[in-house]
Amino acid sequence: MYDVIIAGAGPAGATLARLLGERHSVLMLETRNIRNDFVSSGVREKCCAGLGGGRTGAGR
Fold first, then answer.
1. In terms of CB atoms within 10 Å, which of 5, 26, 53, 54 comes out highest?
2. What's the CA gap between 45 and 33, in Å, rounded?
3. pTM
């Protein structure tokens, strides 16, 4: 039995799970298998769709 169930292991879901997990029993569900996606393709897609880093032209 869990106190909280979180759907989605993106940035918001993972942060919420970490914060709530300090005091509650948490189950986090995710449909993608991120580990297998990375191993098979060798490329890990960013969950923020490339909004950070040099891809947006920030800092140029």
1. 26
2. 12
3. 0.56
